[in-house]
Amino acid sequence: MAVAIAAGLVLGLGTSTSASASSVTVGTQGTDAQIWRHIAKSSAAKQAHLTIHVKEVTDSVQLNQATGDGTIPVNAFQSFSYMQAYNKENPTKKLTAVGTTYLEPMGLYSKKIKHLKQLPKGATIGIPEDPANLTRGLKLLKTAGLITLKPNFNALGNVSGIKSNPRQLKFRQIDGSTGPRVLSDVDAVLMSNTVAQDGGLNVLKDSLVHEKVSRETNQDVNILAAGDKYRNNKSVKKLVKLYRNKGIQRYIKNEFHGTKVEVIKPISALKK
């Protein structure tokens, strides 16, 4: 895959004939690809003298591998916790978070009840089976007061990390992408915002409860990630600053109905 990606890149990262102009390739996927194509065409990018090449790679692991080996200098699609899980599995080519972008809230949804207080004792909750979203889901249930978690619960925690479950909730692990389709089969389903949107749901309006920007969700913030070769590159730093442009943030808010919540925090805050 890395060879195929490399063949598709004319410019990875470099400097044009103008002393103040530069170019950078961003690897991305899904709705993030839409965002970065908009940024690439924006007047803000022109004013920053930055040419952005958007490379869409649908396989998350392959995209991270391409960033780790320097084929794609920087990527934008994952949460800080997802990157941590990837780094644990790929210790020789770890990625570094170089900037925060947004929190895309996970939510708890139901077709059977309208309010969280109506959730019955012994309810069955659909929860994503992938490690990062499983952990996020359990943390959200804790924040909602439905369960408590053991003190050593961490970024790769699972149901074995539940300390108390007073409502006697039952958990059914599901393929995260099937969330909207299993709503009728269980009492409630934990879904990422991307999956919920694909199912016609708005996390801010349709969920029983959802994540909010707080210390509790620091590790779930989406990031720009780079490999060791490019983590201190000037063009990458310029890209991080460009994302903060007010006009670009206005576009993201309007296009995604406020469900990609801008997060301006230092990377050091995500590690706590």
Question: Shape from CA axes?
Answer: globular
Q: What is the number of strand segments? A: 15
Spatial gap, N to C terminus: 34 Å
* CATH architectural label of the largest domain: 3-Layer(aba) Sandwich
Number of helical segments with 4 or more residues: 11
Relative strand content: 15-25%
Cα-based radius of gyration, to the nearest Å: 19 Å
Task: Describe this structure as you would to a colleague.
The chain is of the alpha/beta class. The chain has 2 domains: 2-103 and 218-270, Periplasmic binding protein-like II (D-Maltodextrin-Binding Protein, domain 2); 107-211, 3-Layer(aba) Sandwich (D-Maltodextrin-Binding Protein, domain 2), CATH 3.40.190. Helix content is 33%, strand content 22%. It contains 11 helices and 15 strands. The chain has helices at 2-7, 30-41, 43-47, 60-68, 80-89, 131-143, 193-198, 203-206, 234-243, 246-255, 267-270; strands spanning 13-15, 22-28, 50-56, 74-79, 96-100, 102-103, 107-109, 124-128, 148-149, 162-164, 170-174, 188-191, 209-210, 222-226, 261-262. Strands 1, 2, 3, 4, 5 and 14 form a 6-stranded mixed β-sheet that branches. Strand 1 and strand 2 (22-28) form a beta hairpin. It is globular and about 60 Å long. The two termini are 34 Å apart.
